Amino acid sequence: MPLTRISLGTAWHPRSLLNCRRSFMSVWWRSSTFRQQIDFSLIERAADEQRIYDPHYLSEGRSARFVLFHIFAGNRAAGRRNRDSIVGSARG
């Protein structure tokens, strides 16, 4: 099941955060095999001083309206037997 993390600059208006997420997720669901009902997202706004990068790397400059989108995806559980073996191995 996928976990998405969307990092945005401070220039984004709070209402725009959800619109940005909906747009990315719409593209993600159309291009993946995961069911649309499964969704775990983290949305964060990073202050300018929390971002360290070369502002001119491969560009003439960077905007404060940056978006950094991460997708962490894994395979869905293959049934009770797999879940039981994972839980059993975690218990030691």
Please characterize this protein's 3D structure:
By secondary structure, this protein is of the alpha+beta class. It is globular, with a radius of gyration of 18 Å. The protein has a single domain (3-91), classed as Macrophage Migration Inhibitory Factor, CATH 3.30.429.10. Helix content is 32%, strand content 22%. The chain has a 3-stranded mixed β-sheet, with helices on one face. The two termini are 25 Å apart.
Over the alpha carbons, how many angstroms does the gyration radius reach? 18 Å
Indicate the mean pLDDT.
70
Summed up, the helix count is: 2
Morphology: globular
Task: Indicate the CATH architecture.
Answer: 2-Layer Sandwich
Domain tally? 1
Strand order of the largest sheet: 2-1-3
Major sheet? 3 strands, mixed
In terms of DSSP E residues, the strand content is 15-25%
CATH homolog superfamily: Macrophage Migration Inhibitory Factor
What's this entry about, in short?
The longest helix has 17 residues, at 14-30.
Task: Compile the SSE list and pairings.
Elements: E1 3-9, H1 14-30, E2 40-46, E3 67-72, H2 80-91
Parallel strand pairs: 1-2
Antiparallel strand pairs: 1-3
